[in-house]
Amino acid sequence: MGKKSAHTGLSPKDRSMNIMDKFIRKNEAKTINQPILPARRKDPNVPINLWPFKDQVEYYANLTDDDAFVETYRNYADWFNAVKKKSAVYHITFISMVADKKDIMQQMYADKMWPKVAVRELQKLGVY
């Protein structure tokens, strides 16, 4: 049989785990009695979905049509894809039909025309 050592302490692994457990318990005990922090306030750097619910409801209730358009279609590509979907035409066919009407399409986006209205306008122009 092997020689029995006189080692009576914990292994380094057990000691480090005990230290971490003690640290976690201490921090939990500290934070449990802390007052709840107020919700994030309106700030241009904070996304709207992190605002307090009351502020989100107020923001969306006071949204104008132009603001809603910008919120929904942040760039021309998103708007163009929405118009393409609303047209119910095969996407490659739609792209080839409006290829020569690019300036009209960009003007519609600049005028903040919703996709459904833009499709009706394209139909009036005889694009398809």
Description:
- About 60% of the residues lie in helices and about 0% in strands.
- With about 130 residues, it is mostly helical.
- Helix 4 (about 75-85) crosses helix 7.
- It is elongated, with a radius of gyration of 30 Å.
- The mean pLDDT is about 85.
Briefly summarize what is shown.
The protein contains seven helices and no strands. It has 128 residues and is mainly alpha-helical.
Keywords, separated by commas or semicolons:
single chain, 128 residues, 7 helices, 60% helix
End-to-end separation in angstroms reads: 93 Å
Total strands: the figure is: 0
C-alpha Rg, in Å? Answer: 30 Å
What is the subunit arrangement here? single chain
> Order of SSEs, N→C?
HHHHHHH
SSE class? mainly alpha
Instruction: Give the rounded overall mean pLDDT.
Output: 85
Helix content: 55-70%
Count of alpha/pi helices: 7
Topology, please?
Layout: H1 12-32, H2 53-61, H3 65-72, H4 76-87, H5 91-98, H6 102-110, H7 115-124
Helix pairs in contact: 4-7
